[in-house]
Amino acid sequence: MIKCIATDMDGTLLNTMQEITEENRQAILKAQSQGIEVVVATGRSYQEAMFVLKQAGLTCPVICVNGAEVRSKTGEVITSIPIPQELAREAASRLKTNDVYYEVYTDKGAFSIDTDRAVSILIDIVVSANPEVKPEEVAYAAGARLRDGLIHPIDDYEKLFSDDDNQIYKLLGFSFELDKLEAASQSMNGLEELAVTKSANENIEIMARKAQKGIALEAFVRSQGISLSETMAIGDNFNDVSMLEKAGISVAMGNASDTIKAMCDRVTDTNEHSGVAKAIMQVL
Protein backbone atom coordinates (compact mmCIF):
# COMPACT_ATOMS: atom_id res chain seq x y z
CA MET A 1 0.00 0.00 0.00
CA ILE A 2 1.32 3.43 -0.93
CA LYS A 3 1.59 5.80 2.04
CA CYS A 4 3.71 8.58 0.47
CA ILE A 5 3.70 10.14 -3.00
CA ALA A 6 6.63 12.34 -4.06
CA THR A 7 6.20 14.45 -7.16
CA ASP A 8 8.55 16.69 -9.08
CA MET A 9 7.18 20.10 -10.19
CA ASP A 10 8.51 21.40 -13.53
CA GLY A 11 7.64 19.07 -16.38
CA THR A 12 5.69 16.90 -13.95
CA LEU A 13 3.15 18.50 -11.60
CA LEU A 14 3.14 21.79 -13.54
CA ASN A 15 1.90 22.34 -17.08
CA THR A 16 3.49 24.66 -19.64
CA MET A 17 1.93 27.70 -17.97
CA GLN A 18 3.66 26.79 -14.69
CA GLU A 19 0.34 25.88 -13.10
CA ILE A 20 -1.12 22.88 -11.28
CA THR A 21 -4.10 21.62 -13.26
CA GLU A 22 -7.41 21.15 -11.48
CA GLU A 23 -7.21 17.41 -12.14
CA ASN A 24 -3.80 17.24 -10.44
CA ARG A 25 -5.06 19.39 -7.57
CA GLN A 26 -8.08 17.20 -6.92
CA ALA A 27 -6.01 14.01 -7.05
CA ILE A 28 -3.58 15.38 -4.45
CA LEU A 29 -6.44 16.44 -2.19
CA LYS A 30 -8.02 13.00 -2.52
CA ALA A 31 -4.74 11.28 -1.64
CA GLN A 32 -4.30 13.53 1.38
CA SER A 33 -7.88 12.83 2.50
CA GLN A 34 -7.00 9.13 2.55
CA GLY A 35 -4.03 9.78 4.84
CA ILE A 36 -1.36 9.59 2.15
CA GLU A 37 1.58 11.97 2.60
CA VAL A 38 2.11 13.98 -0.59
CA VAL A 39 5.49 15.69 -0.76
CA VAL A 40 6.71 17.97 -3.55
CA ALA A 41 10.33 17.32 -4.59
CA THR A 42 11.63 20.11 -6.78
CA GLY A 43 14.72 21.92 -7.99
CA ARG A 44 12.93 25.19 -7.24
CA SER A 45 13.58 27.32 -4.20
CA TYR A 46 11.06 26.98 -1.38
CA GLN A 47 9.71 30.43 -2.20
CA GLU A 48 9.06 29.55 -5.86
CA ALA A 49 7.54 26.18 -4.99
CA MET A 50 5.20 27.65 -2.38
CA PHE A 51 4.03 30.38 -4.74
CA VAL A 52 2.58 27.75 -7.08
CA LEU A 53 1.21 25.54 -4.30
CA LYS A 54 -0.58 28.47 -2.67
CA GLN A 55 -2.12 29.45 -5.99
CA ALA A 56 -3.62 25.96 -6.15
CA GLY A 57 -4.70 25.98 -2.52
CA LEU A 58 -2.44 23.06 -1.62
CA THR A 59 -0.38 22.49 1.51
CA CYS A 60 2.46 19.97 1.31
CA PRO A 61 5.90 19.41 2.77
CA VAL A 62 8.55 20.39 0.23
CA ILE A 63 11.88 18.86 -0.69
CA CYS A 64 13.34 21.89 -2.45
CA VAL A 65 16.47 22.83 -4.38
CA ASN A 66 16.92 19.15 -5.33
CA GLY A 67 17.11 18.06 -1.70
CA ALA A 68 19.36 20.81 -0.37
CA GLU A 69 16.51 21.87 1.91
CA VAL A 70 13.46 20.08 3.33
CA ARG A 71 10.58 22.00 4.83
CA SER A 72 7.48 20.91 6.72
CA LYS A 73 3.91 21.77 5.74
CA THR A 74 4.20 24.88 7.90
CA GLY A 75 7.47 26.02 6.32
CA GLU A 76 9.80 24.93 9.11
CA VAL A 77 13.27 23.98 7.87
CA ILE A 78 13.77 20.31 8.74
CA THR A 79 17.16 19.76 7.08
CA SER A 80 19.55 21.79 4.94
CA ILE A 81 22.70 20.88 3.03
CA PRO A 82 24.41 24.03 1.75
CA ILE A 83 27.48 24.36 -0.47
CA PRO A 84 30.47 25.76 1.46
CA GLN A 85 30.94 29.38 0.43
CA GLU A 86 34.44 29.00 -0.98
CA LEU A 87 33.37 25.99 -3.01
CA ALA A 88 30.34 27.89 -4.36
CA ARG A 89 32.65 30.75 -5.32
CA GLU A 90 34.96 28.35 -7.20
CA ALA A 91 32.08 26.65 -9.04
CA ALA A 92 30.70 30.07 -10.02
CA SER A 93 34.11 31.07 -11.37
CA ARG A 94 34.18 27.98 -13.59
CA LEU A 95 30.71 28.71 -14.94
CA LYS A 96 31.78 32.26 -15.77
CA THR A 97 34.97 31.03 -17.43
CA ASN A 98 32.83 28.85 -19.73
CA ASP A 99 30.51 31.77 -20.52
CA VAL A 100 27.47 30.16 -18.86
CA TYR A 101 24.84 32.43 -17.28
CA TYR A 102 23.86 31.23 -13.82
CA GLU A 103 21.61 31.98 -10.88
CA VAL A 104 22.32 31.40 -7.21
CA TYR A 105 19.79 29.67 -4.98
CA THR A 106 19.95 30.32 -1.23
CA ASP A 107 17.82 29.79 1.86
CA LYS A 108 16.36 33.23 1.12
CA GLY A 109 15.39 32.43 -2.47
CA ALA A 110 16.92 32.67 -5.94
CA PHE A 111 19.15 35.54 -7.10
CA SER A 112 20.06 36.72 -10.60
CA ILE A 113 22.63 39.20 -11.81
CA ASP A 114 20.54 39.67 -14.99
CA THR A 115 16.79 39.34 -14.30
CA ASP A 116 15.75 40.14 -17.87
CA ARG A 117 17.86 37.24 -19.04
CA ALA A 118 16.42 35.02 -16.32
CA VAL A 119 12.93 35.55 -17.68
CA SER A 120 13.85 35.39 -21.38
CA ILE A 121 15.69 32.09 -20.93
CA LEU A 122 12.68 30.54 -19.23
CA ILE A 123 10.43 31.74 -22.06
CA ASP A 124 12.76 30.34 -24.73
CA ILE A 125 12.99 26.97 -22.99
CA VAL A 126 9.21 26.59 -22.63
CA VAL A 127 8.42 27.77 -26.16
CA SER A 128 11.09 25.62 -27.79
CA ALA A 129 9.77 22.55 -25.97
CA ASN A 130 6.13 23.44 -26.60
CA PRO A 131 5.87 25.18 -30.00
CA GLU A 132 2.08 25.04 -29.90
CA VAL A 133 1.83 27.53 -27.02
CA LYS A 134 1.68 31.29 -27.53
CA PRO A 135 4.95 33.03 -26.59
CA GLU A 136 3.08 35.98 -25.07
CA GLU A 137 1.22 33.66 -22.69
CA VAL A 138 4.43 32.00 -21.62
CA ALA A 139 6.05 35.42 -21.22
CA TYR A 140 3.34 36.48 -18.77
CA ALA A 141 3.69 33.29 -16.73
CA ALA A 142 7.48 33.53 -16.72
CA GLY A 143 7.30 37.18 -15.74
CA ALA A 144 5.83 36.11 -12.41
CA ARG A 145 9.38 35.33 -11.29
CA LEU A 146 10.00 39.08 -11.18
CA ARG A 147 6.52 40.46 -10.50
CA ASP A 148 6.02 38.32 -7.44
CA GLY A 149 9.55 38.61 -6.08
CA LEU A 150 10.40 34.97 -6.78
CA ILE A 151 13.82 35.88 -8.11
CA HIS A 152 15.84 38.67 -6.54
CA PRO A 153 18.07 41.02 -8.54
CA ILE A 154 21.64 41.41 -7.31
CA ASP A 155 24.55 43.28 -8.86
CA ASP A 156 27.32 40.98 -7.60
CA TYR A 157 27.07 37.36 -6.45
CA GLU A 158 30.09 37.91 -4.23
CA LYS A 159 27.68 39.57 -1.80
CA LEU A 160 26.08 36.14 -1.34
CA PHE A 161 29.31 34.15 -1.26
CA SER A 162 30.84 36.36 1.44
CA ASP A 163 27.75 36.71 3.68
CA ASP A 164 27.70 34.18 6.53
CA ASP A 165 23.96 34.75 6.93
CA ASN A 166 23.31 33.11 3.54
CA GLN A 167 23.25 29.41 2.88
CA ILE A 168 24.13 28.67 -0.75
CA TYR A 169 22.07 25.72 -1.97
CA LYS A 170 22.53 25.61 -5.74
CA LEU A 171 24.06 27.24 -8.80
CA LEU A 172 21.77 26.91 -11.81
CA GLY A 173 23.50 27.44 -15.16
CA PHE A 174 21.67 28.08 -18.45
CA SER A 175 22.84 28.08 -22.05
CA PHE A 176 21.44 27.15 -25.45
CA GLU A 177 25.02 26.46 -26.54
CA LEU A 178 25.19 22.88 -25.30
CA ASP A 179 28.94 22.63 -25.83
CA LYS A 180 29.41 25.42 -23.30
CA LEU A 181 27.17 23.62 -20.82
CA GLU A 182 29.10 20.41 -21.28
CA ALA A 183 32.41 22.20 -20.85
CA ALA A 184 31.11 23.88 -17.69
CA SER A 185 29.90 20.54 -16.36
CA GLN A 186 33.24 18.88 -17.07
CA SER A 187 35.05 21.77 -15.41
CA MET A 188 33.46 20.75 -12.10
CA ASN A 189 35.46 17.50 -12.13
CA GLY A 190 37.75 17.46 -9.16
CA LEU A 191 35.32 19.36 -6.95
CA GLU A 192 34.40 16.14 -5.18
CA GLU A 193 32.01 17.74 -2.68
CA LEU A 194 29.72 18.83 -5.52
CA ALA A 195 27.11 16.99 -7.58
CA VAL A 196 26.14 18.12 -11.09
CA THR A 197 22.81 17.19 -12.68
CA LYS A 198 20.23 18.51 -15.17
CA SER A 199 16.51 19.32 -15.10
CA ALA A 200 16.39 20.35 -18.79
CA ASN A 201 18.63 20.10 -21.84
CA GLU A 202 19.58 23.75 -21.50
CA ASN A 203 20.77 23.75 -17.88
CA ILE A 204 23.08 22.26 -15.31
CA GLU A 205 22.44 22.22 -11.58
CA ILE A 206 25.28 22.25 -9.07
CA MET A 207 24.65 21.30 -5.44
CA ALA A 208 26.42 19.74 -2.49
CA ARG A 209 26.97 16.03 -3.22
CA LYS A 210 24.52 14.89 -0.55
CA ALA A 211 21.83 17.33 -1.71
CA GLN A 212 19.81 14.85 -3.78
CA LYS A 213 16.09 14.26 -3.99
CA GLY A 214 16.51 10.55 -3.29
CA ILE A 215 18.56 11.08 -0.12
CA ALA A 216 16.12 13.73 1.12
CA LEU A 217 13.09 11.57 0.31
CA GLU A 218 14.56 8.58 2.15
CA ALA A 219 15.14 10.70 5.27
CA PHE A 220 11.70 12.29 5.00
CA VAL A 221 9.70 9.05 4.77
CA ARG A 222 11.75 7.53 7.61
CA SER A 223 10.82 10.52 9.79
CA GLN A 224 7.16 9.82 9.02
CA GLY A 225 7.40 6.14 9.87
CA ILE A 226 6.99 5.19 6.19
CA SER A 227 9.23 2.87 4.19
CA LEU A 228 10.53 3.51 0.68
CA SER A 229 8.63 0.40 -0.46
CA GLU A 230 5.44 2.28 0.51
CA THR A 231 6.49 5.32 -1.52
CA MET A 232 5.72 6.31 -5.12
CA ALA A 233 7.89 8.89 -6.91
CA ILE A 234 6.92 10.74 -10.10
CA GLY A 235 9.38 12.67 -12.28
CA ASP A 236 10.52 13.58 -15.77
CA ASN A 237 14.22 14.41 -15.75
CA PHE A 238 17.69 13.53 -14.54
CA ASN A 239 17.49 15.43 -11.26
CA ASP A 240 14.64 13.04 -10.37
CA VAL A 241 16.70 9.87 -10.89
CA SER A 242 17.88 9.49 -7.29
CA MET A 243 14.32 9.45 -5.93
CA LEU A 244 12.95 7.32 -8.80
CA GLU A 245 15.62 4.73 -8.01
CA LYS A 246 14.77 4.61 -4.31
CA ALA A 247 10.96 4.60 -4.43
CA GLY A 248 8.95 1.40 -4.28
CA ILE A 249 7.04 2.52 -7.38
CA SER A 250 8.70 4.84 -9.89
CA VAL A 251 6.61 6.69 -12.47
CA ALA A 252 7.94 8.55 -15.51
CA MET A 253 5.95 11.32 -17.12
CA GLY A 254 4.80 10.82 -20.70
CA ASN A 255 6.95 13.82 -21.65
CA ALA A 256 10.09 12.33 -20.04
CA SER A 257 13.01 11.13 -22.13
CA ASP A 258 13.23 7.49 -23.16
CA THR A 259 16.10 7.08 -20.71
CA ILE A 260 13.92 8.12 -17.76
CA LYS A 261 11.00 6.03 -18.98
CA ALA A 262 13.17 2.93 -19.31
CA MET A 263 14.30 3.09 -15.68
CA CYS A 264 10.79 3.47 -14.23
CA ASP A 265 8.15 0.91 -13.29
CA ARG A 266 5.37 2.86 -14.97
CA VAL A 267 4.80 5.64 -17.50
CA THR A 268 1.89 8.05 -17.03
CA ASP A 269 0.45 10.79 -19.25
CA THR A 270 2.25 14.08 -19.98
CA ASN A 271 2.35 17.13 -17.73
CA GLU A 272 -0.02 18.89 -20.14
CA HIS A 273 -2.58 16.15 -19.60
CA SER A 274 -2.40 15.80 -15.80
CA GLY A 275 -0.15 12.75 -15.76
CA VAL A 276 0.43 13.15 -12.02
CA ALA A 277 -3.30 12.85 -11.32
CA LYS A 278 -3.54 9.72 -13.42
CA ALA A 279 -0.59 8.14 -11.58
CA ILE A 280 -2.10 9.02 -8.21
CA MET A 281 -5.55 7.68 -9.06
CA GLN A 282 -3.98 4.41 -10.20
CA VAL A 283 -2.67 3.72 -6.69
CA LEU A 284 -5.60 5.04 -4.68
Please explain how this structure is put together.
It is a single chain. By secondary structure, this protein is α/β, with parallel strands linked by helices. The chain has 2 domains: 149 residues, Rossmann fold (3-Layer(aba) Sandwich); 124 residues, Hypothetical Protein, Haloacid Dehalogenase-like Hydrolase, Chain: A, domain 2 (2-Layer Sandwich). It has an 8-stranded mixed sheet with strand order 5-4-3-2-1-12-13-14, with helices on both faces. The chain has a 6-stranded mixed sheet with strand order 8-7-6-9-11-10, with helices on both faces. A hairpin with a 5-residue loop joins strand 10 and strand 11. Helix 2 runs parallel beside helix 13 and helix 5 packs across helix 6. The chain is globular and about 50 Å long.
What are the salient characteristics of this protein?
284 residues; 40% helix; alpha/beta; 2 domains; 21% strand; Rossmann fold; globular; 14 strands; Hypothetical Protein, Haloacid Dehalogenase-like Hydrolase, Chain: A, domain 2; 8-stranded mixed beta sheet
Query: So what's the CATH class of the largest domain?
Result: Alpha Beta
**What order do the SSEs take from the amino end to the carboxyl end, as H and E?**
EHHEHEEEHEEHHHEHEHEEHEHEHEH
Mean pLDDT: 92
Please give the number of β-strands: 14
The radius of gyration over CA amounts to 18 Å
Poorly predicted runs are: none
Tell me the major beta sheet. Answer: 8 strands, mixed
CATH superfamily of the largest domain: HAD superfamily/HAD-like
Assign a percent range to the helix content: 40-55%
- Rounded to the nearest angstrom, the distance between the terminal CA atoms is 9 Å
Strands in their spatial order, largest beta sheet: 5-4-3-2-1-12-13-14
Beta-strand content: 15-25%
User: Which CATH architecture of the largest domain would you pick?
Assistant: 3-Layer(aba) Sandwich
Q: What is the SS-derived class?
A: alpha/beta
The CATH topology of the largest domain comes to Rossmann fold
| Count of individual helical segments | 13
Number of domains: 2
Overall, the morphology is: globular
